[in-house]
Automatic annotation (TrEMBL):
Keywords: Hydrolase, Signal. GO terms for cellular component: cytosol. This is Glycoside hydrolase family 92 protein. Residues 39-287 form the Glycosyl hydrolase family 92 N-terminal domain. Residues 1-23 form the signal peptide. It comes from Sphingobium limneticum.
């Protein structure tokens, strides 16, 4: 997702695993009982993935990772995570990062080590030396990162706990050790980016500080507390804006003579330790509340570098161990890394004492759940959050939903989060996709959620007329393009979200709400042009906008980060209704084939940064296409889904730094692979069904939140055997192209027998097809 292109466009206008051991497979190169060993955090750190390799705990508040670029180039799309694997130098290590986002921000509180007598306080560039350094010998695993900074001769190691990050620096023997703490650095170089910042030394030697930032989410406040394993010998705080110098220590080895503090918009600190006999450890905690909160968070996680590293490694092994995978080594590495990326966000936002800062910029007390932020909901409602309902405890999924509802309660506009981080709203992307996340969890029976209260929050968002053309949508049944940009996309995304509201209302016995939103769920038809067979933008007078080119991608136009080819399939709740408009199964299959086989040789998409991973007009590098390969099942040709999935997996994922075809978008690209590798996918979250594709692993044992195990096994899996021959559920033939959430949660075994030729008799009948709002007699 390219958030920069879309951010605020519409809003500004309208708002102002199982404990069983896995059997060895003949195709399997190796299996470790320690899933951490199968993860490669460098996957996605080059190409279009936008991931970072640094240290983070599952859903951790701190993402401690290297930043590799400086200057105007840092404003570009490619450095959204602050890091690119191919960059030869490292600026230092900052404590907050997005994993795979389509827009830049964060990079809070950059720390970098310097050795020797001279300590530069500027990063430098290709012509001017500074504190940045060339790099060598990078290694990474979940919760750990290390690199040699060749210029100062320092081996740097990073680890992270839930609310802390820990650095360890081995300085050259006999040379003075220094740290530079740069409060000016940020991953995206916004004009006037730092509204205010501060740094000070407390009586016990703890350094604390804060900054308030004008960025993607504005204004955002973040606080830190920092302690060291060795005493400071001297320090200086500098404001490069005012050129003010504050010195706080005199002479090596002496205590503080002045407890210095400094505030301003451009602060950098030099922290001196003298020659050290052993590596220096630096422990840093963050808070969105205040400096005292950061200090409390620092205290809440006891232990040195090795203790925190071991604890986080154990946490990752537990989280990743929810799915025990046997597969050939490259696929196993891809899938476990995908699961790892899926477990980074939403990130914890409340302090250890439960306090958190909300979108109203007020501090709120804990309410019996752990507050989370970093919700990229336009992306993650599709597969990321449905995956988390299967591989994370119910309490964690309840935290996510309760955080969304709390965001609605504390929003100045009374609506659910759209794209939120650091407790602040960015108004990025379209739809109100907190709604399907909440509905899916409630419909699956996740405990710890007040679903009736959540439904009220969902309806409040769906009925907020100033948001994104909703007023016209409620009056006209569609969003008019002459009044609201990206109108075609908004119409169909609102309709899907409305369907999930109706589903939850039905379950809760609220018939009036259910009926109202069931009607709205059919609004996708109002923007579908039967003559051309495409979704199109309509004007307020009812006419379709012309001229019309289904391949055109222009930001701010009829569609959001896509075109008519991708968005004409976005009615995941009513594919049967769509297929009738297209003229039936055969014509639908022909149109799907035309999408995948489209010749793009005469089309230039270089202006569209996030349009990547093209297979014809199927764009796997961006989310609107993610369910499309599964739609052959709805037309009675599941073997075509199996063919397309093989084509996508082989071309879009590999265990290398450029191994993701598009932005991971906080885990959505990765969650797609995890589901697909297991053999099923949630085309319509809220339906409580998963559409069967085909497996890509020999065996997987999923430990479910309720204590049951759901096991996927395959016979005959190979490159040649890309088709399903038979499917068995708990020893009985499964003759339908879907499996229910209840069947998975009950535990059992789903067994696939693979073969080289299509089985054109399996799951082709209408009653064997997945759920559709208006079809198939179910």
């Amino acid at each position: 997702m390219n958030a920069f292109r879309i951010a605020r466009t519409a809003i500004a206008a309208s708002l102002l695993a199982g404990t069983a051991l896995l059997a060895q497979s003949p195709a399997q190169t190796s299996v470790s009982d320690d899933p951490v060993e199968a993860v490669d955090p460098f996957i996605g750190t080059s190409g279009e993935g936008h991931t970072f390799p640094g240290a983070v705990a599952p859903f951790g508040m701190v993402q401690l990772s290297p930043d590799t670029h400086v200057g105007p180039a840092r404003q570009t799309y490619d450095w959204a995570a602050g890091y690119r694997h191919e960059d030869p130098t490292i600026l230092g290590f900052s404590h907050t990062h997005f994993s795979g986002a389509g827009h830049s921000d964060l990079g809070d509180f950059l720390v970098t080590p310097v050795s020797g007598d001279s300590v530069p306080l500027e990063a430098g560039d290709d012509k001017t030396p500074g504190y940045r350094s060339r790099k060598a010998d990078e290694v990474a695993s979940p919760g750990y990162y290390a690199v040699t900074l060749t210029d100062p001769g320092v081996r740097a190691e990073l680890t992270a706990g839930t609310r802390v990050g820990v650095h360890r620096y081995a300085f050259p023997a006999g040379k003075a050790a220094h740290l530079v703490l740069d409060l000016r650095s940020i991953i995206y170089d916004y004009p006037g980016k730092i509204l205010w910042s501060s740094v000070r030394i407390r009586p016990d030697g703890t350094i604390t500080g804060s900054r308030e930032i004008r960025g993607w989410a504005t204004p955002r406040r973040i606080f830190f507390a920092m302690r060291f394993s060795a005493p400071l010998t001297s320090h200086q705080f500098v404001s490069t804006e005012k050129d003010i110098l504050y010195k706080g220590f005199k002479g090596p080895g002496r205590g503080p003579e002045t407890l210095a503090s400094l505030s301003g918009r451009a602060l950098v600190a030099q922290l001196d330790f003298g020659p050290l006999a052993k590596p220096l450890e630096v422990k840093v905690a963050l808070s969105g509340v205040d400096e005292d909160g950061a200090i409390a968070n620092l205290t809440s996680e006891a232990g040195d570098f090795d203790t925190i590293r071991a604890s986080t490694r154990a946490a990752w092994n537990k989280a990743l161990g929810a799915v025990k995978i046997a597969a050939p080594a490259p696929m196993r590495r891809n899938v476990y890394t995908a699961l790892y990326h899926s477990l980074m966000a939403p990130s914890i936002w409340s302090d250890a004492d439960g306090r958190w800062r909300g979108p109203d910029d007020q501090v709120h007390a804990g309410e019996g759940f752990t507050m989370h932020s970093t919700f990229s909901l336009w992306d993650t409602f599709r597969a990321e959050h449905p995956l988390l309902t299967l591989v994370q405890p119910e309490a964690k999924n309840a935290d996510f939903v309760n955080a969304l509802v709390a965001g609605q309660k504390t929003s100045p506009f009374g609506i659910l989060p759209v794209w939120q981080f650091g407790g602040k709203e960015t108004w990025t992307m379209i739809g109100y996709h907190a709604v399907p996340v909440i509905a899916d969890a409630c419909l699956k029976g996740i405990k710890g959620i007040d679903c009736a209260a959540a439904l009220k929050a969902m309806v409040a968002s769906a009925d907020y007329a100033p948001y994104g053309g909703l007023g016209d949508y409620m009056k006209l049944g569609y969003v008019p393009i002459d009044r609201e940009p990206e109108a075609a996309s908004k119409t169909v995304e609102y309709a899907y979200d409305d369907w999930t509201i109706a589903r939850l209302a039905r379950q809760l016995g609220d018939s009036a709400t259910a009926q109202r939103f069931e009607k709205r769920a059919g609004n996708w038809r109002n923007s579908f042009d039967e003559k051309t067979g495409f979704l199109r933008a309509r004007k307020a007078d009812g006419s379709f906008r012309t001229p019309f080119d289904p391949t055109a991608i222009n930001y701010g136009s009829d569609y959001t980060e896509g075109n008519a080819w991708q968005y004409s399939w976005f009615m995941p709740h009513d594919q049967a209704g769509l297929f009738r408009l297209l003229g039936g199964d055969a014509k639908t299959v022909a149109k799907l084939d035309a999408m995948f086989d489209y010749d793009n040789s005469k089309i230039d998409y270089s202006h569209a940064e996030d349009i990547s991973g093209l297979i014809g007009q199927y764009i796997h590098g961006n989310e609107p296409s993610h369910h499309v390969a599964y739609l052959y099942n709805y037309a009675g040709q599941p073997w075509r889904t199996q063919e397309r999935l093989k084509q996508i997996v082989d071309s879009q994922y590999k265990p290398t730094p450029d191994g993701l075809a598009g932005n991971d978008d906080l885990g959505q690209m990765s969650a797609w692979l995890v589901f697909t590798a297991l053999g099923f996918y949630p085309v319509a979250p809220g339906s409580n069904e998963y559409v069967i594709g085909r497996p890509f692993v020999d065996r997987a044992d999923m430990a479910l939140p309720n204590g049951q195990h759901f096991i996927v096994t395959t016979d005959g899996l190979s490159d040649a055997n890309r088709y399903i021959g038979t499917v068995m559920l708990n020893g009985k033939p499964l003759e339908r192209a879907y499996i229910t959430d209840a069947e998975i949660r009950a535990g059992g075994t789903l067994h696939f027998t693979m073969q080289a030729t299509p089985n054109k008799a399996w799951a082709t009948g209408k009653k064997a097809r997945p759920y559709s709002m208006t079809g198939y007699g179910r």
